[in-house]
Amino acid sequence: MIALVNDIGGRFVGFLMGVTCRCALCGDVLSTDVLDRGICSACASRMAAEMRWTCRICGVPVRPGQGYCPACTTKAYWFDAIKAAGIYHGSLKEAVIRMKYRGERNLRTPLGKLLINVALKLPPCDVIVPVPIDPARKGLRGFDQARDLAEELSRGLGLDLNDALERRKSNISMTGLSRRDRWEEVKDAIKLGSSSRARRLAGSRVLLVDDVVTTGATANACSRVLKKAGVVEVYVAALARTAI
Ligand SMILES: [Zn+2]
Ligand SMILES: [Zn+2]
What we know:
Blueprint: H1 2-17, H2 41-50, E1 81-87, H3 90-101, H4 108-120, E2 127-130, H5 135-141, H6 145-157, E3 160-161, E4 165-167, H7 179-186, E5 190-192, E6 205-213, H8 217-228, E7 233-241
Helix pairs in contact: 4-6
The structure holds zinc ion (2 copies).
């Protein structure tokens, strides 16, 4: 009965408010109890189940009970840990593509809330830094999705946002590159920004924000620059993680 009332209530408020009351991922009408979240209970449970067991360092799904993925038992990274809201597939992947390539910038709000939940599972940080995109890409798209998400996080968590990182100009798209090529290509692609704020991160713990983590190469390159600037810990919060 309660579920029925919630459903009718959700549809009524959904009718009044339009698309904002549909799940940002699957498009189902939201029940009133999750209107604020913007993601329906079915999608939230599916993602939680997918991310129930993940590598404590790189965040990829692992077998139940396992703490680390095979790669992280031998490899060292500059970041301390990566966590993502879900696997990069299905409706989460669709939502990221809609936000990133189809201009649905309003998705920043519900997807930003997903990221807040991710950040709350990581150790506390002092400042938020977005993974920078190539300025040419931002020009084409008109906005920077990682920065949009970082702004939502900054508001939600009450933490400072610092655009400390910049990307060097590159004509190569990471899409389509092999795993090894990505690590090589991105290694020197990130630099510390020239502003004085960018250079005042020494001693802090940074929450690095990106939309999708694929190999971890970009997160690692960003973390390297931050650690060399004196940052003590870097935790990466992402919307989605590709499974290996
Ligand atoms: Zn849904
Ligand atoms: Zn791992």
